[in-house]
Amino acid sequence: MRSSLAPGIQVITSFSRDSWYRSFTLLLTFLFYTAYHLSRKPISIVKSQLHRNCSTVIRPVQLNVTDNDTWCDWAPFDQDNYKTLFGALDNSFLVAYAIGMFFSGIFGERLPLRYYLSVGMILSGLFTSLFGLGYYWNIHSIWYYVFVQAMNGLAQTTGWPAVVACVGNWFGKGKRGFIMGIWNSHTSVGNILGSLIAGVFVSTSWGMSFIVPGLIITSTGILCFFFLVEKPEDVKCTSPQHHGSQNPEREPLLQNSCSSAGVLGSPAAVPSLPAEESEEPTEAISFVGALCIPGVVEFSLCLLFAKLVSYTFLYWLPLYISNVAHFEAKEAGDMSTLFDVGGIVGGIVAGLVSDYSGGRATTCCFMLLAAAPMLFLYNSIGQRNLGTTIGMLLVCGALVNGPYALITTAVSADLGTHESLRGNSRALSTVTAIIDGTGSIGAALGPLLAGLISPTGWNNVFYMLISADVFACFFLSRLVYKEVQGCCGHTPRLRGVK
Description:
Blueprint: H1 7-14, H2 17-40, H3 42-50, H4 82-110, H5 113-136, H6 142-156, H7 159-170, H8 176-183, H9 186-201, H10 208-227, H11 251-255, H12 275-278, H13 287-291, H14 296-325, H15 329-357, H16 360-381, H17 386-416, H18 428-453, H19 458-475, H20 477-488
Helix pairs in contact: 2-5, 2-7, 2-9, 2-10, 3-9, 3-14, 3-15, 4-6, 4-18, 5-6, 5-7, 5-10, 7-18, 8-15, 8-17, 9-10, 9-15, 14-15, 14-17, 14-18, 14-19, 15-16, 15-17, 16-17, 16-19, 17-18, 18-19
């Protein structure tokens, strides 16, 4: 009697070869960008340890120090201008990141993504670790930490354009918002893991809060070098369609590239297309050409203000919780992860809603408008009790990070494969870099403004964040109008551009 195929093997072979490669690429790029964000987070956790209330700290008997209020702080952050110095650390990273991002997309279109990502992650791991080594080398110069942060910011620009371009190469528009909404949770997962890892060491030896994440991102860089597949054609799969097919009868054939060959079988034959349809422009798009794609400027300016809000929370939320709710450094760091948990949900919901409605801009605008009053409420009543704090952090995280996640993933991929490009897939990295680079200007401004404004009171910081949300909505108003007009006029729904 012939034995039936084992259930586990039946499950494995039920997936096409194409599906396995897509899933593997999605998993790898998820891990890569999780590591990028994991290595960014420690600075926000360590801040409250570099400058803290020494009157609450038990002084070791053997420690011979001058009797002052800052004996437990780490110089040079033991001075009254410590918030300004923290702002300098944040901005040395973020300004370098914003400037480098505009060039990173250009390099990403012209260099192999596998090499580009691998080198970027290894360099980022090096500079992250160097910051932590300042603890063991007893370095107290602000310029050392500023330099290391700036170099790390440049190294980190390799990440986002490259991973979005790679995922965009593998996935068409069909359910891009939902898929990339789930995939984009790597940002929040990285923030959460970075907070937890840094929190383990922050109270004992804060240098390890940087060294361990540095080693992790270095390891993922090595993983990238050995396993990343940049494009479907590299493994004899056909690229997915990025736009609606003009020939419906042929669309399933294109979308089911690699056909139904099992992962253990040989690659399926790929049908040949007419020359005029199969040929793809090989010249990378120019910077100005990418700016001319409809919707790029509007979404870039919107992201500038949306990312301003998100990164202000990323860098200052643990310190805010520590100051207002009087939590210890580790507790404040752990509590701040709830904001990122909410961000995971917000990104998935934003992607799902925008896929269903076809309105990327409208979805972003609605969430940004809802975020403004929620930020006001969080600052007013968010610290009354533990339950309120948890609930408000989750809701604020979803509303703040949802639009940010949607713009940097599905919207960037949509614009980078816009119909005006006529199939040129080599615009994806440049478009992504322009959008995220413009957003990174806001990411640099937010923590800087928070550092300057916070001495006047946290209320003023939140007023600044609420204003930024309103400005973000303003820059989407034209696209929202066109989406609503298209819906009411029973014309094909827009995906954020037209």
